[in-house]
Specification:
7-stranded mixed beta sheet, 2 domains, alpha/beta, globular, 7 strands, 12 helices, single chain, 336 residues
Length: 336
């Protein structure tokens, strides 16, 4: 039997170590390798001990289920990062895959005791778009019609029931999972405006009716009510025993939506592109830089959850003013 190259052993050892870090609590490494590769437990242990080399096909199978940053494993180049993403354009099937992966990933985060999400929000965090099933349906319609250019939505107007119920259920489930994860969110006073502009534009374009527009803005206002209450108590759920919600008001123009996730010993960065999609990596150096950027934003922002009552009041009053202004404008329109 040929002797295994020492460099290969070092690379495989690093790969196995990263794989171990990604496993949710209660999952055995050997059992998971055996399941993914369809090999015996004994064969799995030989791979863990580097007595048997992992093939390219086996690495591919593992990486398909557990997105390990291969540039971190196979290279020491700090200026090269590998990202993963889901192709979305022009495909309703891909969009469902995207939503499902989002939901499953949030469920995975919640399996870890040590978990936290940092969300730099140029626009309202997408999980809040799923605050109610009505808001979910509108956002799913808007994304598929105006962002992804999915053909079946191009010549249709919005109405309740136009989006498949399974998509709404997946989206709403993602919101419920997000509520379980302790989070730091950094907003500006313009973060709230995106949905208001989308509803207003669709109403002026005749894509949604006046009744639907006012219903959606009422739902949006209810979502802000929920956020304000969470900010007042510093908790996402009233039953939370410790602070789980940290909301910051930033005067700095954010320029992007970005998520930084901590799951046990693993860290991930999600960089927004194409409106709703994201580039994902767990590259160590990149995640460290993302964390440093977010911490810097945090220091320059004002904490308005649980403390800063005056600043919090001003922050949410402006939100209500923007929503109510749009409600008044649409209500005043006389339809022929």
């Amino acid at each position: 039997m040929p002797k295994t190259d020492k460099t290969n052993l070092q690379v495989q050892s690093r790969f196995i170590s990263r794989f171990r870090e990604l496993l949710p609590p209660g999952h055995g490494l050997a059992e998971e390798i055996a399941d993914v590769l369809k090999v015996s437990i004994d064969s799995a242990y030989r791979r863990i001990r580097c007595e048997t080399e992992l093939t390219i096909e086996e690495i591919f199978k593992i990486n398909k289920k557990y997105p390990i940053s291969l540039d971190e494993i196979f290279s020491n180049q700090s200026d090269t990062v590998t990202f993963s993403y889901t192709k979305l354009t022009d495909s309703a099937v891909n969009f469902e895959t995207y939503l499902t992966r989002l939901f499953v990933h949030l469920q995975t985060v919640n399996k870890f005791e040590n978990k936290k999400l940092y969300y730099v929000a140029e626009e309202v965090p997408m999980f809040y778009s799923f605050f109610s099933k009505k808001l979910s349906e509108f956002k799913l319609f808007y994304w598929q019609r105006s962002v992804l250019n999915i053909e079946q939505y191009q010549k249709t107007k919005f109405e309740w029931g136009i989006v498949p119920q399974n998509l709404i259920d997946i989206a709403y489930g993602s919101y419920q999972e997000y509520l379980k994860i302790p989070s730091v969110e950094i907003w500006t006073d313009e973060t709230i405006l995106t949905v208001i502009k989308q509803v207003s534009f669709y109403f002026e374009s005749g894509i949604i009716t006046k009744v639907h527009a006012l219903e959606l803005l009422s739902e949006y206002r209810a979502m802000v009510d929920m956020l304000q209450k969470n900010a007042e108590i510093g908790r996402k759920n009233i039953s939370d025993k410790h602070e789980t919600y940290f909301l910051y008001d930033s005067d700095v123009v954010l320029g992007t939506n970005c998520i930084y996730a901590i799951m046990g010993d693993s860290k991930y960065s999600y960089i927004s592109f194409n409106s709703i999609n994201s580039l994902t990596t767990n590259n160590h150096e990149f995640c460290e830089e993302t964390e440093h950027w977010m911490r810097n934003l945090e220091r320059k922002s004002t904490l308005i959850s649980n403390v800063g009552e005056k600043q919090r009041y001003k922050f949410f009053s402006l939100m209500y003013k923007n929503i109510d202004g749009c409600i008044e404008k649409i209500s005043a329109v006389q339809l022929e």
